[in-house]
Amino acid sequence: MPVLDESSKGVYLITVTPFADDGALDLESTDRVVDFYLEKGAAGLTVLGVMGEAPKLTAAEARAYTERVLKRVSGRVPVIVGASAPGFAAMRELATSVMAMGAAGVMVAPGAAVRTDDQAYNYFEMVAETLGGDVPFCMQDHPLATGVQLSTSVILRVIKSIASCVMLKHEDWPGPGLAKLAAVRAAGANGTTRRISILAGNGGGLFLPEELSRGADGAMTGFAYPEMMVDVCNAHAAGDIEGGA
After folding, report:
1. Per-residue buried b or exposed e for 62-77, using 16+ beta carbons within 10 Å of the residue's own CB
2. How far apart are CA 196 and CA 219, in angstroms?
3. For 69-74, what is the mean pLDDT?
4. Is 245's pLDDT higher than 70?
5. What is the pTM (predicted TM-score) of this model?
6. Is the pLDDT of residue 43 over 90?
7. CA–CA separation, 240 and 3 (whole Å)
8. Nearest CA-CA partner of 4 in 82, 57, 67, 61
């Protein structure tokens, strides 16, 4: 099975979670959704994200849905699983379960209680300790959803000190967010830190051309026409900046 690493790029679509009329998981529709994403050129999938309505699922449903996606993907692309949880024990339980199923890695965002830079760094240090060094993770920077502001200095400190952090999901709003993205990418280019993968998730790809121009390796978000995001990323990778805009 593919494993998440610093070289990941392209469009990682956040999957929706289909439900039946009675609120149960609609696993047959899940198969069709996965097939659609792969047909449209997804480089990877992310399940149990904010768009995937993870908070609405029980622990058993989250595992069942993830297992169904992984079986349908059958190793064709990496699958990242959102593992954020109020407690580290629940995070470990889910991460251990999905990695055994064949997930490529997990995505984690800090909890709302995190307020200072030291608290933010200590949180991700505890994430790495909880998951173990053999579980690669994506650091999610999504202040609009979490209420937590991850400073550039904290992100760089995590990248420099925690080897299992191999990806940043950039979802801070443009303005300060784009400056943060550029600073992280510059630090990787000049050797201050490792160069890790950065995937952008703002507004369903609304600012994707600007994010790619500042060094993002691709997108991680949901979109009704994913082939459009794939085309934008491919154009930028080929140097066709105007064509990708």
Report:
1. bbebbbbbbebbeeeb
2. 14
3. 98
4. no
5. 0.95
6. yes
7. 29
8. 82
Query: HSE of 192 in the Cβ direction (CA atoms, 13 Å)?
Result: 14
Give the confidence band of 202 by pLDDT, cuts at 50, 70, 90: confident
Element (H, E) at 99: helix 88-101
The Cα–Cα gap between 239 and 235 comes to: 6
Q: Which amino acid is at 74?
A: S
Phi (first) and psi of residue 43, to 5 degrees: -85, -20
Residue 177, pLDDT score: 86
Rounded to an integer, what is the distance from CA 124 to the centroid of its chain?
15
Cβ(176)–Cβ(152) under 8 Å? no
Contact 194, 159 (CB under 8 A): yes
Ordered structural domains, the chain, with CATH:
10-236 (3.20.20.70)
* 140 DSSP β-pair partners: 169
CA-CA distance, 228 to 56, in Å (whole number)? 29
